[in-house]
Amino acid sequence: MATLPNPLPTLAADPSGRSLGLGLPLGRLIDETYDGPWHEPLLWHAEYAAASGVWTALGGRAGRTGLLPVLIEVGGSQGGPEEWELRPWAMSYPGDHDAEEVLAEYWEYAVEDPDDLDETIAPFAETWPGPAPTPASLPADPDIRAAETADALLDEGSWFKEPRLALVPARRSADIPAAIGWTGPVNFEGDTARLCAILRSWEDRFGIRVLALTFDQLIVSVAAPPATREDAEAVAAEHFAFCPDNITQGDHETLREYAEHAVLGQRVWSFWWD
After folding, report:
1. Consecutive H or E run containing 110
2. CA 223 → CA 70, 149, 209, 237, 252, distances in Å?
């Protein structure tokens, strides 16, 4: 796998990022991992709370340098990313995994104890139902939708306690969790790149962008959410494989209910692992 050059070390001597064509606010480079400092910075994040417009102001220009935007939560009980037990060495490359194969494996794992699951996973059975259909087209530019959604979540004020804009060296938005060695799903999956392979598939099919990360939560924007109940249930099946806790420990106790309230027409998908 060819590794992209990491622009972040440049910021050690040039914190404003002017040499990269950026005008960054005061921020910090994060290289702290579970085992101590990593050999290069994993991400940069601003020192001050993110506000509406910051994604648009920095995200596009940063993308041209190989840095992709994501919001991070530094105000949770686990603190900011320097406290998140990042493990970049434990991650493979997302492109080395087949998303449908990973989803089928996760589905089998999620339904391996079938007691009381028939109603939970209806209209599907224990056999992996296959991927959801791909929308005919993307009605919105995924990057524009991501910026709009970031603004909406920041304006709403209920999603984050202390959000910061971060920049991550990654090939594509779907790779951001693996690029920083994020371990939010570690009790479910130790190699986050396998989850990122699914995010890549959603990126291609539904125009998702990784919008925000907390210690154990992943939030994505969606440019083309499913518009029919049938399609929403098919996507909900993928969500159940990807993150069973969303249903088994979430607000919606069945896949049908989850599809109706958390998938159908929704421009934000959120995932949390126990």
Report:
1. helix 99-110
2. 16, 10, 8, 19, 23
Q: Is 268 exposed, middle or buried (0-12, 13-18, 19+ CB in 10 A)?
A: middle
Which pLDDT band holds residue 114 (cuts at 50, 70, 90)?
A: low
Full-model pTM = 0.96
Residue 164, CA atoms < 13 Å, CB-side half-sphere: 25
- pLDDT at position 256 is 96
Q: Which residue has the tokens 């104890």?
A: 113
Q: Which residue matches tokens 């790779």?
A: 175
What value does the mean pLDDT of the chain take? 93
What's the Cα-to-Cα distance from 29 to each of 9, 91, 165, 173, 218, rounded to whole Å? 9, 20, 12, 19, 21
Q: Is the pLDDT of residue 2 over 70?
A: no
Residue 219 Cα to chain centre, angstroms: 5
Q: Name the 3-class secondary structure at 96.
A: helix
Q: Which of 234, 265, 262 is nearest to 107 (CA)?
A: 234
Q: What is the tens place of the pLDDT at every residue in 60-109? A: 788 889 999 999 999 988 899 999 999 999 999 999 999 999 999 999 99
Q: Parallel, antiparallel, or unpaired for β 32-33 and 36-37?
A: antiparallel
